Give the backbone structure.
Amino acid sequence: FTVRPGEGFSSVNGRLASKGLISDARLFHYYAKYTDKMGSIKAGSYKIQPGQHMGEILDTLVNGVPILTSVTIPEGKNLYEVGKILEANDIVSYEDFVKEAKNQKYLQELGIDAPSLEGYLFPDTYKFAPGTPAQTVVKAMVDLFNDKTRDLNLSSTHLKPHEVVILASIVEKETGAKFERKTIAGVYLNRLKKRMRLQADPTTIYGIWENYNGNLRKKHLLEKTPYNTYKIPGLPLGPIANPSLAAIKAVLE
């Protein structure tokens, strides 16, 4: 039985009764009110055993541990792909996740000068309750990024910390082989030092992502966007994916 985030007691009570999990909605209401637990039911999915009486069910919804869904975010996925994965696992809707990942107020609080939290949604395995609010999901991913990178000196190169994340995201998209990452990072760092254009296909693709059909054409390479590194000098506007810790270290090293 799933209690939806923000769902009121009367709605939960009605659904419990309609599913035959409680025998008397009015009595359940009186009992919850008498025990002062009407406002204590927690969102999440719970296992209710056959034959449980109403007191046990209420205790489960108030004090029980929700059943969490394990979801893995692979390295190198961008925020749109992450949103699709989360929606497919009934964690949060795609639209809500993308909107929160582009929440400028939250970006300002984190001190990130970028169009979105792309690059900071750390790839890992998470456990969330179905219907978790988008803000909670996004915060968990950013918090893990901060935790994983806490011991790294993101200012150890001539790049700014945010630029390190941008370049790491490009390195991540260019190769899945760990042994190649440092070499690729070195190539791009040398191009930046020489003021050469990066000419990276993955950045160009990201710039047209929401209209991209999987086929990169010459017209795309000629289209000037803040992410087309064939047409613009230096790094793109922001990260193009969420890099692994290994890709970030490759840039720093």
Notes: The chain has a mean pLDDT of 91. The chain has twelve helices and four strands. The radius of gyration is 23 Å.
